[in-house]
Amino acid sequence: MTNPSLLILPGDGIGPEVMAEVRKIIDWYGDKRGLVFDVSEGLVGGCSYDAHGTPLTDETMEKAQSVDAVLLGAVGGPKYDDLDFSVKPERGLLRLRKEMDLYANLRPAQCFDALADFSSLKKDVVAGLDIMIVRELTSGIYFGEPRGIFEEGNERVGINTQRYTESEIERVARSAFELARKRNNKVCSMEKANVMESGILWRAVVSEVHEKEYPDVELSHMYADAGAMQLCRWPKQFDVIVTDNLFGDLLSDAAAMLTGSLGMLPSASLGAPMANGRPKALYEPVHGSAPDIAGQGKANPIACILSFAMALRYSFDMGAEADRLEAAVEKVLADGVRTADLLGEEGVTPVSTSEMGDAIVAAL
Amino acid sequence: MTNPSLLILPGDGIGPEVMAEVRKIIDWYGDKRGLVFDVSEGLVGGCSYDAHGTPLTDETMEKAQSVDAVLLGAVGGPKYDDLDFSVKPERGLLRLRKEMDLYANLRPAQCFDALADFSSLKKDVVAGLDIMIVRELTSGIYFGEPRGIFEEGNERVGINTQRYTESEIERVARSAFELARKRNNKVCSMEKANVMESGILWRAVVSEVHEKEYPDVELSHMYADAGAMQLCRWPKQFDVIVTDNLFGDLLSDAAAMLTGSLGMLPSASLGAPMANGRPKALYEPVHGSAPDIAGQGKANPIACILSFAMALRYSFDMGAEADRLEAAVEKVLADGVRTADLLGEEGVTPVSTSEMGDAIVAAL
Ligand SMILES: CC(C)[C@H](C(=O)O)[C@@H](O)C(=O)O
Ligand SMILES: CC(C)[C@H](C(=O)O)[C@@H](O)C(=O)O
């Protein structure tokens, strides 16, 4: 049997720093648990543009298609703000999502016990929170045509198209229902069916999939604006939320921030099963490239490390190893080890990115 | 001089109950301050559909075009969930917004001192909060064509179009900059220019208006997902936020909920000046029709009453009278008078909708 393969794309900003800590974890699994990964590395985002004039080369795209899982750090930064739309760092990430057809983006919004005080929300509102947002990732207004800036009369017009097919909605709905069955068996679907026809279709298709294939799961529907409200009011009412690409972008970021654990939250983007049965998969932290603190050793590597834990669980069916890694993170937090983003308590001295990585390796 | 004219559209659910309290306030201004309004009333939403088979008759639409200001309660309810899209209650409201060309929707997100404990956010995060969200209201994905559900191959496709012209962005940007000048002189514009071309145009046009006409105002830009995060983390960093129709829908609802004052928050939707110099205007509470508590005398009328205060300020240039009404509301809250939605403290008995209205009249 060949070793499972990983493509590591550290990207921009704090990406390389946090990814260096993930490599320590990967090495630990190889040395101590005999889990050896074939690791290769590549460029994505601004650093790829700097080297090759494109945020993702065809070669790296092909490599991503051929490995078992991709781990990505973060892309973007002010240095690239004035680049043409077609070569912006984000286009590299969007191309990976689209060409690998990673339609289900899993974003857990979890509040870590040791950090419940750290949220801007009251402790009882977030303590113990554990919800999963399933965001459609390969369609909707992110990719719909026509799009662009056009001249009309004597002014410019900006156009984007929200476009969802029945089968695109079906497959992400199934992902949400499957996840719910392994959790608390509840799905809430969010759209704006009161205003958008694409939302009407979304609601109808989710309901049909539910009725035919998952009648045992509890399903509710909510308008996305009400959903944003309810996430802020009492997020524990939710288990799994399923929503489209754009609503998912806003709602999952809001939910992540509510937990007070933004530097802690991983994500998995999954597609259809490959020949070996493993899903196409890309794992990345929810946080961005944080250019303001890049290169200073201040970044929190936990979100990226937990993204690797998600890879163990969803790509390699190693749930027990994922549990082990998550437990190590919890232990380090419980011990009071904190990177600078997690400071709230008095008198705690922050550790560096690499000290946090070392602490987690030690806890393993 | 003729009296200023008001069209009252109570709508559905709790709309009629809360509007009855506004009428007490209007009567008080007529009796005690000699401010007599010509008030007419009409139907919008589900109740109009029940009576006339349409959520807004042409007659009521014409009336709305001819008055100085429209006051609206709320529209919608589960009873109308299965209606065809074209006659849903919401279409009545959307037709008013579109045909009156009410492009600037002003949504203050304010935390009332007496209610700071009531938010799901920590007190220091929200106490004293006072931000203004300016949402574009007549364009974007709410109205763009093509739209609909189509057959393609052998499946359905749901389509909506985000479409913004330069002049649509310009005029709402001006509204935001004007407001900022009367406040803390800061505007933050939110879009997804990293993903959507309409967002690129939005950012460019807002920057151009800023540079040419409002260089004295501080302008920043934020991606809407980061905006959702920052609203949850530290909302006091903002003064005026300007954003498009759909992002504004979600962000303003989230912001409203953060204040803990959802039943308290008014809105104004303003268009171009009419022949008499007053802007086309519609005022409505941010909350919805709340069908679960409709008809029980439990609803909080304050959001609707404060919407009338906004009418005094923005349509009738009676800032001092608006201040008076807002002060009366603050006094009643400081006295501990609470409708059921505002209960949090132990041992407080809620007052009814009409008792709250009476208390505010008494405080005037
Ligand atoms: C970087 C950007 C293109 C991306 C998105 O909008 O999807 C990010 O915000 C995210 O949520 O992963
Ligand atoms: C009722 C609905 C059509 C409306 C909207 O989506 O604009 C509401 O949510 C609002 O924010 O005023």
Automatic annotation (TrEMBL), chains A, B:
Organism whose genome encodes this protein: Thalassovita mangrovi
UniProt GO BP: L-leucine biosynthetic process
Cofactor: Mg(2+); Mn(2+)
EC number: 1.1.1.85
Record-linked Gene3D superfamilies: Isopropylmalate Dehydrogenase
Keyword field: Amino-acid biosynthesis, Branched-chain amino acid biosynthesis, Cytoplasm, Leucine biosynthesis, Magnesium, Manganese, Metal-binding, NAD, Oxidoreductase
MF GO annotations: 3-isopropylmalate dehydrogenase activity; magnesium ion binding; NAD binding
Cofactor note: Binds 1 Mg(2+) or Mn(2+) ion per subunit.
Full protein name: 3-isopropylmalate dehydrogenase
Lineage: Bacteria, Pseudomonadati, Pseudomonadota, Alphaproteobacteria, Rhodobacterales
